[in-house]
Amino acid sequence: MYKVIPKKRYQHTLELVDKFISKDEKILDLGVENPLSNLIRENGFQVINTKGEDLDDEFEHLNSVDADVITAFEILEHFLNPYSILKNLPGKKLLITVPLQLWFAKPYRNMNDIRDWHYHEFVDWQLDRLIEKAGWEIKFRKKWTHPSGKIGIRPLLRRITPRYYAVYAERN
After folding, report:
1. What is the number of structural domains in the chain?
2. What CA–CA distance (Å, rounded) separates 66 from 69?
3. Which domain holds residue 29?
4. From the centroid of its chain, how far is CA 84?
5. What is the pTM of this model?
6. Contacts by 144-151, CB closer than 8 A, 24 or more apart
7. Which residue stretches of the chain are H helix?
8. Cα separations (Å) of 85 from 61, 79, 126, 134?
9. Are strands 26-29 and 46-49 parallel, antiparallel or unpaired?
10. Distance of alpha carbon 171 from alpha carbon 17, whole angstroms
11. In this structure, what CATH number is given to the domain that contains residue 106?
């Protein structure tokens, strides 16, 4: 079906895209062009990305973008204000993946790049409530683990503790 995909989360995400989005629908992927959006495009989907603007401050223009579906893969956790962004999105379909909060690990923070911080690592019910409050109706949820292949207590916990959470939602 697909060529070999290097990351487990990419495989899960691509399967969800294939399940909920048709190839004739226009996708607005929040975030700059990246290996995952390119992979989705290579599999025949119409994808445009945002241009790197600070969506915490510049989200109003999103509702004027011509898109049927919004995807937000591993990006909501980087926003200070994901509610306003979700509330102002165009389209009728929304597909999101986020890293889940892990009780045994601190939120990710890249000290060399403030844009690469996780302001939110969600618990599933928190993301659900955020999506619903922004006017979306959740139709599907999925969690999966992300084993590291290393030896130790934390790698063992990563094998059995879900790290990623996907939500598909629609609005009228």
Report:
1. 1
2. 9
3. 8-170
4. 16
5. 0.87
6. 144/8, 144/9, 144/12, 146/8, 146/9, 147/8
7. 8-20, 35-42, 82-87, 124-133, 153-160
8. 10, 9, 16, 9
9. parallel
10. 17
11. 3.40.50.150
Buried b (16+ CB within 10 A) or exposed e, 42-63: eeebbbebbeeeebeeebeebe
Which residues make beta-bridge pairs with 168?
Answer: 95, 140
pLDDT tens by residue, the chain, 172 residues: 445 455 777 889 999 999 999 999 999 999 999 999 999 999 999 999 999 898 989 888 898 899 999 999 988 988 889 999 999 999 999 999 998 876 656 666 667 766 666 667 888 999 999 999 999 999 999 998 876 777 888 777 777 788 889 999 999 7
Q: What is the pLDDT of residue 2?
A: 47
Amino acid at the residue 94: L
Question: Is residue 3 situated within a structural domain?
Answer: no
